[in-house]
Design brief:
The complex is a heterodimer. By secondary structure, chain A is mainly α. Helix content of chain A is 33%, strand content 8%. In chain A, the strands form 2 sheets. Chain A has a two-stranded antiparallel sheet with strand order 1-4. By secondary structure, chain B is α/β, with parallel strands linked by helices. The termini of chain B are far apart. Classes of the chains: A mainly alpha, B alpha/beta.
Chain lengths: 184, 787
């Protein structure tokens, strides 16, 4: 008799917990992949596609699924280090296929040469180019991520990438770089 | 419990944590009167001299300005206007080195004084009580006053606070070991400073006014006491000398015993602090209607013959002031702007004095070694003595901060409250290892700020990227919807029983039938071509193989022509042409294939070269060019045939060479005859097309030999052709040359196209040519790599 009671009690408890877990899995379901979200937050969001994925989020998802962590060229070593920390894997050097130069740049349209073909507008991942057919285009510098994607589609090569100038606002206190003139 | 005021009256104060006693050097300058301002040859006025945004310029180069005239207007409360320090002419507005540790340049107005020092119209207001508070605040804002103690916070923001103010604290502590600017100002201008204090008192109505002054300024204290003798609620607090008691939070702690929490403005604790120099400027602005155009600057240091305080116009180059004080410039020395504790080295002496500049230090090598000289001290390892933590006035852990700053551990730095560091330099001063601690903190602060900006930017980019994705999706759906609707509408229309619907139906049926017929034709041709090519591969290198390949080539050309032309008549024409060609080919098939090619080539080139000089009409020229291009195309596709031998390619390239020469000679002829350049551009375009096609077809060849030949062919083409398609600049040049030729030739030829139209057309043609050249260059780039 006591065995039956024990089985019954355990069975009821098991059923209760089962129901509870089932309820929780429906009610508190986490939308999306939390790891991919975390990885996405580490990426520089230039949406440049240099990693081979159409944007930062797809690459974050790919990394979460086991893609190599060293494909983000704009992020550089810092981003690789952060991803490695998060994923608990070894830090790898940046993929050789990517340029090592990840200094911040913005695109610039040489406006006299622009023929208004809108190809760069279609290529821009963050809609930072304004202009329309047969009208001169220009870049919204503040929105440009420096991803380089508009350069290749331009049929007349009128887009160039300009390094962001150092101002007193973004100066990094590199005292050794000050052009000091000895006063005579 | 004893109240703050009772305590102050008793003469006992609180103490802030830490602090140091660097050797006093105030004796160098504190007994000499302030020298009057002299006007330099040139004033360099940075547009932004404070924390916040720069104002909008209201003057332009060449403008004559009067003393005190406004140079930049402001629309936001965090921006401060600037004024002309003397009368003169604006000679330039350009980027110049500004007083900043980085030595970077920012926009500056260059004012060349006329020496007359003519004032603008001023409205002197002897009694400020007649003005409303808003008027006074407006006056302060228009006078361009920002905090003159160091940070340069816009003053009108401070004096228009709505918070209930218990204590107005006047900062006369001036704790930096060299600076005596405020001291001298108090000694000489106590009554004016008091007027300024009264104005702030009127604006804020604080319960008490505390003037914090260090005990080493006895004369200034006496002057202040005399001036404030009859005012009850102003308390002069003589505090012990200790660096950095002049810091805002430190002085608040000394006087009231309260600590200002991290990230909170003192006004939320019911306190406002003003510097004495700011009080002076406020009085001057409100009573005398004088904007902030000059200030007292301490020029000190043992490298000077007569260190003293001077009234300096804003924008005076530092070199002008040091020369005035007998700067011994025989040896290489460095200049420091600000005090020795918190100042920074200047890159050169053409840096201007700005509203926050209180001191220029020209130390001798013994006093303060130049950081750029070899004798300057070298940093060694931290010995963990903890002296830095003892002296830190902000009660931070400098040593820990240093580790984290070096490791770039931003999370840890935030935990250690890096941003509460006031960069007073006390820790670096006491460090036995001579670690430039403050420097590490500054670097870390800049990095964190930068990272924050990047994070914001990344977030914005992410949002925009997502928004774009959604937009594209939306557009796709909308397009699909539109198509669906259009199709439904069409169906509905066709189902109605009208004559229009019927005709439409029949048209659709016709089109379908045509498409089917075309398909059938194409498949038949495909089959024959395949059979031919199969034959070609099975048979070895014989003439028969060459023949069969030739026929297949023609088929391919026919197909491509048919595909390109969509108009019915065009297709028909093309087919007719192709058939004619085929016939010609078959006729010549008996002869060796090599001969065929060359024979085909020579007559056409002959005709073209003959035709060119004779025919002036450009339409004819275009026709010639088109014919040539077609010839080339055919040639190229012949080379492309699956079984084509090295021999064939060879002859093809050889045949092309004279062709290129021909074309060039044609264009040369044209040039000499000064015929409208449109034909030339068109010829270039066609040529480019043909070349691109040939290039592409050659690129598909697996044989390395062929590839090499093709490239050499291309090169020779470039060499031979005055119009080289691979070279964009050359192309552009060509167009330009054509342009000039056109202008020369116009009197001779009757051109019915107006120049404007031509110009535009040329531009378009140039762009197209450029684009094509780019494509070609890209494909030629690709072919070596693929090989």
């Amino acid at each position: 008799m006591s065995t039956v009671i024990a089985i019954l009690v355990l069975g009821v408890i098991a059923a209760l917990f089962g129901a509870l877990l089932g309820f929780a899995s429906v009610q508190f379901k986490v939308q999306g992949d939390p790891l991919a979200e975390q990885l996405d937050a580490l990426l520089p969001q230039t949406q440049c596609g240099q990693c081979g994925y159409p944007g930062c989020k797809p690459y974050a998802q790919a990394v979460a699924n086991g893609e190599a962590i060293n494909k983000c060229a704009p992020g550089g070593e810092d981003t690789i280090k952060k991803i490695a920390d998060l994923m608990g894997v070894e830090v790898q050097p940046l993929d050789e296929n990517h340029e090592a130069d990840n200094s911040p740049k913005v695109a610039f349209i040489i406006e006299e040469d622009c023929i208004g073909c809108t190809k760069c507008i279609q290529a821009c991942p963050v809609d930072a180019i304004i202009g329309t057919t047969k009208q001169m285009h220009t870049i919204i510098t503040d929105e440009c991520t420096g991803c380089d994607l508009c350069v290749a589609p331009c049929p007349v090569d009128c887009i160039e990438m300009i390094p962001v100038a150092t101002t007193t606002q973004n100066w990094q206190w590199d005292l050794n770089s000050i052009p000091v003139v000895q006063i005579n | 419990m004893e109240s703050v005021i009772e305590r102050i009256e008793r003469g006992s104060f609180w103490q802030f944590h830490g602090g140091i006693h660097p050797p006093e050097q105030k004796f160098l300058t504190c007994t000499k009167p302030i020298a009057s301002a002299q006007i330099p040859e040139q004033l360099i006025i940075p547009i932004r001299q404070h924390i916040g945004q720069a104002g909008n310029l209201v003057v332009k180069v060449g403008d004559k300005v009067l003393k005190g005239q406004i140079l930049s207007a402001c629309d936001s409360p965090m921006s401060v206007p600037i004024h002309a320090p003397t009368s003169g002419t604006i000679t330039a507005i350009q980027s110049m080195a500004i007083p900043h540790p980085s030595g970077l340049s920012e926009a500056c107005i260059i004012l060349t004084p006329d020496g007359e020092d003519t004032w603008k119209q001023r409205h002197i207001c002897p009694d400020f009580h007649l003005l409303s508070k808003i008027q006074i605040i407006e006056k302060i804002a228009n006078a361009g006053i920002s905090g003159m103690g160091g940070a340069g916070f816009p003053t009108q923001v401070k004096v228009s606070t709505l918070a209930k103010i218990d204590y107005l604290i006047i900062n006369a502590a001036e704790c930096e070991p060299y600076i005596t600017a405020d001291d001298l100002l108090l000694q000489e201008h106590s009554p004016t400073i008091l007027d300024g204090i009264k104005i702030i008192d009127h604006l804020l109505s604080p319960k008490n006014i505390l003037i914090g002054i260090e005990e080493n300024k006895t004369e200034a204290t006496d002057a202040l006491k005399k001036a404030t003798a009859d005012i009850d609620h102003i308390k002069i607090c003589v505090i012990p000398t200790k660096y950095p008691s002049g810091g805002e939070k430190q002085l608040i702690k000394i006087l009231t015993g309260q600590e200002v929490p991290s990230g909170v403005l003192p006004s939320s604790l019911g306190m406002v602090m003003q510097n004495v120099a700011t009080c002076f400027a406020i009085a001057d602005a409100v009573i005398n209607d004088t904007p902030l155009i000059k200030r007292v600057v301490t020029i000190s240091g043992q490298a000077l013959e007569k260190p003293q305080n001077v009234w300096a116009l804003i924008g005076t180059p530092v070199g002008f002031l040091t020369r005035q004080c007998g700067y011994n410039n025989s040896k290489n020395r460095h200049l420091i702007m600000g005090g020795p504790m918190m100042g920074f080295s200047l890159p050169h002496d053409q840096i201007p004095v700005i509203k926050t500049t209180n001191c220029i230090l020209a130390p001798s090598e013994i006093e303060i070694a130049s950081p750029f000289s070899s004798t300057s001290s070298k940093e060694v390892e931290c010995i963990r003595c903890g002296q830095c933590a003892d002296v830190c006035p902000a009660q931070l852990l400098p040593q820990e901060l240093q580790w984290s700053a070096k490791a770039k551990d931003q999370a840890q730095l935030a935990k250690l409250n890096l941003f509460d560091c006031i960069e007073c330099g006390a820790c670096a001063y006491v460090c036995p290892s001579q670690i430039p601690l403050v420097h590490y903190y500054r670097v870390a602060k800049a990095e964190i700020r930068q990272q924050k900006l990047l994070d914001i930017k990344a977030e914005k980019a992410k949002v925009r990227f997502e928004a774009r994705k959604q937009r594209l999706e939306r557009e796709k759906v909308a397009r699909a919807e539109k198509h669906k609707k259009a199709a439904e509408a069409r169906k509905a229309r066709m189902n109605t029983d009208t004559s229009a619907a019927k005709s439409e139906k029949s048209a659709v049926a016709d089109a379908l039938a045509r498409v089917k017929a075309k398909k059938a034709q194409a498949s038949i041709k495909q089959n024959t071509a395949e059979n031919d090519s199969e034959d070609a591969t099975t048979t070895t290198t014989t003439t028969s193989a060459a023949e069969s390949s030739n026929t297949s080539t023609v088929d391919i050309t026919v197909e491509s022509v048919a595909a390109v032309d969509d108009g019915k008549s065009q297709v028909a024409n093309a087919i007719a042409r192709a058939k004619a060609k085929k016939l010609a080919q078959k006729n010549q098939a008996q002869i060796d294939s090599l001969d065929t090619l060359q024979n085909n080539e020579s007559p056409s080139s002959l005709t073209s070269s003959q035709a060119a000089p004779v025919v002036i009409d450009r339409k004819a020229k275009v026709a010639v060019a088109v014919a040539k291009a077609k010839e080339k195309k055919r040639q190229a596709s012949a080379a492309n045939s699956p079984s084509s031998q090295v021999d064939i390619i060879d002859t093809a390239t050889k045949a092309l060479k004279p062709n290129a020469v021909n074309l060039d000679s044609v264009s040369d002829d044209k040039a000499t005859q000064a015929i409208d350049k449109k034909a030339k551009v068109a010829a270039a375009m066609v040529k480019a097309k043909a070349q691109a096609k040939m290039k592409a077809s050659l690129g598909t060849e697996t044989s390395f030999n062929n590839l090499e030949k093709s490239t050499t062919n291309l090169e020779s083409n470039i060499d031979l052709g005055a119009t080289s398609e691979c070279d964009v600049p050359a192309q552009v040049k060509n167009v330009e040359a054509a342009k000039t030729k056109k202008t020369q030739g116009e009197p001779q030829t009757v051109s019915n196209i107006d120049t404007k139209n031509l110009d535009r057309k040329t531009k378009i043609a140039a762009a197209i040519a450029k684009a094509k050249a780019k494509k070609l260059a890209a494909s030629s780039d690709k072919s070596p790599t693929s090989e």
